[in-house]
Amino acid sequence: MGFKGFSGKIFFLLSFLLVFGVSFPLAVELTKIQGKIKNENGKAISGAKVQIEETGKVIATTTTNNKGEFSLSIELKEYTISVEADGYQSARLSSESESGKKTNVELVLAEAFALVRGTVFTERGFSFPNALVLVEAINSNNRKKFIKQYTTNQSGEFAFRLPNTGEYLLTASAKGYITESKKIEVNLGEARNLAFSLIPEKK
Questions:
Q1: Complete edge-to-edge strand list for the sheet that includes strand 69-74
Q2: Using CA atoms, how far apart are residues 154 and 171, in angstroms rounded to an integer?
Q3: What is the CATH number of the domain that holds 151?
Q4: 130 Cβ contact partners less than 8 Å away, ≥ 6 residues apart
Q5: Residue 87 and which of 32, 109, 127, 147 are 20 to 30 A apart at CA?
Q6: What is the pTM of this model?
């Protein structure tokens, strides 16, 4: 086949496409979504999971680097960003973008914790000030790890935060009294209330 014959076929094919309205898809301009995830103290959060959602469906995902930064490219104009990180409350942000342009996002995640509070009483039901409350974490091998020790106030009350979901052992004690322990399992975001009653040691 000669060059003229080949070029003639190409011309015929193009004419056919134009006449019958056949069109080729144009290249889609992507929008670059970039940003930074940090905590309430301004510290970057690395390893945070960042997702782009459309009507509840995840269409892109990535994780932040050691500087808390991320970058994603999408075709959507309207979208929702959701962010999750261990030890922090998740966050969501709905936004709009322009095709072919960059969008900068900065999200601050609040610390997630379980709140544990309670009161230590005497055997007669009176408040027990200056009692010691020891907190230990229990791992999967049933081993205990010391966390912290608290002292009750003048009303016999104590309160503290736990940064991780799991099982803990709390022990209330005072000199001359029998210690009392309670094992609890907590989840981030919940509050637990406890009561201890210390009985004098027998002499």
A1: 69-74, 31-39, 102-109
A2: 19
A3: 2.60.40.1120
A4: 151, 152, 174
A5: 32
A6: 0.58
Q: Which amino acid is located at 105 in the chain?
A: V
60 burial class (0-12, 13-18, 19+ CB within 10 angstroms)?
Answer: middle
Give the pLDDT confidence of 22-64 residue by residue, as tens digits: 454 555 577 888 999 999 999 999 999 999 988 878 989 999 9
Looking at residue 68, what DSSP letter applies? S
CATH of the domain at 84: 2.60.40.10
Instruction: Let me know how long the chain is.
Output: 203
Q: Report DSSP letters for 149-181, one per residue.
A: EEE--TTSEEEEEE-S-EEEEEEEE-TTEE-EE
Strands 114-122 and 69-74, sheet pairing: unpaired
Residue 4 lies in a domain: no
Residues contacting residue 26 through CB under 8 Å, at least 6 positions apart: none
